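Database export, one record per block. Field names are fixed; values are copied verbatim from the stored entry.
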Amino acid sequence: MGAGCATAPAPVSDRDLTVSEGTTFTVALDRRAGTGYGWMVDGADTQTVTLVARSIERDVAAPGAPEREVFVFLAKRSGTTTLHFSYGRPWEAATPTPAARAYRVQVIRC
């Protein structure tokens, strides 16, 4: 998911990312095609990381087929932030989201 320095500490879990300042890293989350549900990133510290691209990857173009929503971030400066992702329909903001993910990102200077 992320590239880091040769001396970067090992992540504690798959949701702990250590990346080098000035590099990009991706977070890919599974979703179902044709349901209206998608992933949204909430509250990222834009001084530390910035969303630079977002895309959908599909293996099969059929309603209900599995697909991945891919977020590409730029690690701007050293620090630590948490990326919060919620899974839902954007027009149903008042309802509880069926899923959520959080990724702790440590940006280090090499």
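Remark 1: Residues 87 and 99 are 5 Å apart (CA to CA).
Remark 2: The chain is about 0% helix and 55% strand.
End of record.
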